Amino acid sequence: xxxxxxxxxxxxxxxxxxxxxxxxxxxxxxxxxxxxxxxxxxxxxxxxxxxxxxxxxxxxxxxxxxxxxxxxxxxxxxxxxxxxxxxxxxxxxxxxxxxxxxxxxxxxxxxxxxxxxxxxxxxxxxxxxxxxxxxxxxxxxxxxxxxxxxxxxxxxxxxxxxxxxxxxxxxxxxxxxxxxxxxxxxxxxxxxxxxxxxxxxxxxxxxxxxxxxxxxxxxxxxxxxxxxxxxxxxxxxxxxxxxxxxxxxxxxxxxxxxxxxxxx
Length: 264
Prior knowledge:
The protein is an alpha/beta fold. Helices cover 35% and strands 20% of the residues.
């Protein structure tokens, strides 16, 4: 096992500071991998996955907390309906500029996968590869039903403490940002149809066949509409968080994808 160096960063944006962390193997090569978390996530909730990914791939791995999440500053208000595509020119671009990332691989989980698509589309040749994990490509009934069920669970006594552990006094905002954004009428027609044709880098779409927040129509749509070489992998007997439920399979799929010449 390679020796691993970790480093923390603070990224300045006009709206506030973002927290980021890097995992760097002693011997590394290839474009670094930037992780985009899910709707309730943050750097800490990736757990040991970034380090394991850095070890397996031999690449630097970078994760950051979006504004309003984890250790980053509080968000000043409600998320706009364009929040998924906005990230590419917002926190993600600030991260790339301040960490001098002229080339990268972007990997996003759940809504972070949609944001990753936007990043690949907006940053063109700088993106060496795109990996989506359990990403939503449009607003589906399954997704909304899953969100409503989760909202009911978080309404039970003590359940919000699960979020406060990672987001502190921002926990209520984090929950409402997820629920209210996805269930709003303004967001009901959202999809990735305009961004995906602009994705020309190699693409890997991972999805569990038991994902409670989206059917297999999502990876099918993602790979069908992207302009570059695209492949999808369905993970059997797997839910919405493959990197936690089946980490070995996810790492194997990602390292095989990154070994392709087009992603170097």
